[in-house]
Predict the structure.
Amino acid sequence: MEIKRIAVLTSGGDAPGMNAAIRAVVRTSLDKGWMPFGVYYGYSGLMTHNISPLGARDVGGIMQQGGTMLGSARCPEMRTEEGCKKALATLEHHNIDALVVIGGNGTQTGAYALSQLGMPVVGVASTIDNDLYGSDITIGVDTALNIALEAIDRLKNTASSLHRAFLVEVMGRKCGYLALMAGIAGGAEAIVIPEAEFTPEQVAEQMRNSYNRGKQHAIIVVAEGAQNNAEKLIHYFKEHGKEYDGSYGFDLRLTTLGHVQRGGIPQAFDRLLATRLGAAAVECLSKEQTGVLVGWINGKVGTTPLSEVAGKTKQIDTKLLDLANILSL
Ligand code: F6P
């Protein structure tokens, strides 16, 4: 397999560190004498021929920027055979010999489909949700976690001042990783995640216990994907007015962090992880190792066949919830 022209794209939810991965792909490709191209707005860019060459200077000064300089998109067309064939046709039209795809679950499923059609593809593990099979930690998680933690720390200040409880809802789609880790590192009184559901009554009980133990505040970190997400919990507390207005001890407020978690300056960990994974993706292609996801496995860069990654999600260690519970004393 001779590579002369290589393309890179970012797809799905952006994640802090994606730019460092793009930079690594472009510059290691140039080092190999290949010509790199950027596809804009993820797979949608392949539907519209939004593709152009990227030089070393084009990726200068981007590492410290959040988001992705290539833009991203959710592209429903890539879920169809027709869409995948269209994407392949665009790559062939531009004489692209190999493709690096940076993103999470849906993105890597698209990458697998393209590789099945014969395109040499390597995926790079990137999503703030950390639910991607084939990488112990993905690009963007650490920065998103730090943003959630900063918010929790700030909320604790105001919560303690007014003797309040806060429901803090964090992202993660169907995965409780961000909520669990933010809850542990943020010293939460309760953590509500899809993998181990808490009923509203249990959350109320936890608040009352915290109050009775003399705490100045209670922080309840809730994953957006939990069945009892923040909206449902707040609804419950509103319905049960007495509890809401303080008979469980604390007065209650809600903060939904939402997309705030995806923005901001990528932390050192994400820049380094993204740089190593981006460079490794190019190395894979140069060794003709294609149809794989490049991720971080057992403390080093590793690969997993995209056939194993597609459509699967990584499970979290729910035993950590017990630890969080003990530490919330
Ligand atoms: O997958 C990343 C993520 O931020 C999830 O945590 C969240 O559920 C989703 O994307 C939000 O999607 P969108 O940006 O399309 O609203």
